[in-house]
């Protein structure tokens, strides 16, 4: 078995979106072909409500798909299709903008005023740019978790891994989206199909990738 070489390691960049939400962008400022079909990956994590509570008021999307994954707090969602709902800790939302959709996402934080989540954007192929918009929420209880003997734990959000399949399907990019915990001191190898673009984002702790130039710490991404 050969190991895929690490092409680049970069730190997520602080930025502001929506009505003033402070977040960190792992990628999305640069050439979109770098990680095509993935366009953007944001880490919105704050302990101060004033840094996120104004949220992302009504705004349009077209020709893309988004996956929102909440770790702490709650995100209130509404869209022009009439969908409304709350995303709580561990929940996932998938939205296909297709021919066009208006929506808003309003972070509310947990009881301690903390908010943390991720949003991934995927590009739709040209033949699917004008498909009808779609939306679906997945509760944390619907997301399978697999644990290895060494304590490695994986939540399978999309795609198939270790015999489990994530509940989010129908995404044009057909991504394998995993939330992985590897215990300290454990070395782990994961199989990646050769035809896939791949990136890993370390959001807690630190780790080293096989041939990477250095140890990768929190809020760093590796491709």
CATH topology: Jelly Rolls
Please report the distance between the alpha carbons of the first and last residues: 19 Å
Determine the CATH superfamily.
Jelly Rolls
Highest CATH level, the class: Mainly Beta
**Which segments are poorly predicted (pLDDT under 50) over 5 or more consecutive residues?**
none
SSE arrangement, N to C: EEEEEEEEEEEEEEEEEEEEE
Strand content: over 45%
Query: Could you give the count of β-strands?
Result: 21
Number of helices: 0
Give me the secondary-structure category.
mainly beta
Shape: globular
Whole-number radius of gyration? 17 Å
Estimated helix fraction: under 10%
Query: Going across the major beta sheet, what is the strand order?
Result: 2-3-4-11-6-9-12
| Largest β-sheet summary | 7 strands, antiparallel
- The mean pLDDT is 90
Overall number of structural domains: 1
CATH architecture: Sandwich
List keywords for this structure.
single chain, 223 residues, mainly beta, Jelly Rolls, 7-stranded antiparallel β-sheet, 4-stranded antiparallel β-sheet, globular
Written overview of the protein:
With 223 residues, this protein is mainly β. The chain has a single domain, classed as Jelly Rolls (Sandwich). 0% of the residues lie in helices and 46% in strands. The protein has strands at residues 9-11, 13-17, 21-27, 38-46, 56-61, 64-72, 75-79, 84-87, 92-96, 101-107, 115-123, 134-138, 145-147, 153-158, 160-161, 164-165, 177-181, 200-202, 206-207, 216-217, 220-222. The strands form six sheets. Strands 2-3-4-11-6-9-12 form a seven-stranded antiparallel sheet, with no helix packed on it. The protein has a four-stranded antiparallel sheet with strand order 5-10-7-8, with no helix packed on it. β19 (206-207) and β20 form a beta hairpin. It is globular. The protein starts with 8 loop residues before the first strand and ends with a strand. The mean pLDDT is 90. Belongs to the pirin family. This is Pirin N-terminal domain-containing protein.
């Amino acid at each position: 078995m050969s190991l895929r070489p690490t092409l680049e390691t970069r730190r997520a960049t602080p930025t502001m979106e929506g009505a003033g939400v402070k977040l960190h962008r792992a990628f999305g400022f640069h050439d979109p072909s770098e990680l095509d079909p993935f366009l953007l990956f944001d880490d919105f994590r704050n302990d101060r409500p004033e840094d996120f509570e104004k949220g992302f008021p009504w705004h349009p999307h077209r020709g893309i798909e988004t996956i929102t994954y909440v770790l702490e707090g709650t995100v209130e969602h509404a869209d022009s299709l009439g969908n409304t709902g709350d995303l709580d800790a561990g929940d996932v939302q998938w939205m296909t903008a297709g021919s066009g959709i208006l929506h808003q996402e309003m972070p509310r934080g947990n009881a301690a005023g903390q908010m943390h989540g991720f949003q991934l954007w995927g590009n739709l192929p040209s033949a699917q740019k004008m498909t009808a918009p779609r939306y679906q929420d997945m509760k944390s209880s619907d997301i399978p978790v697999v644990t290895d003997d060494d304590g490695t734990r994986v939540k399978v959000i999309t795609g198939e891994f270790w015999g489990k399949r994530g509940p989010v399907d129908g995404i044009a990019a057909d991504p394998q989206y995993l939330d992985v915990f590897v215990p300290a001191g454990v070395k782990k190898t994961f199989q990646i199909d050769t035809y896939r673009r791949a990136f890993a984002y370390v959001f807690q702790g630190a780790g080293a990738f096989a041939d990477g130039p250095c140890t990768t710490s929190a809020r760093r991404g590796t491709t």
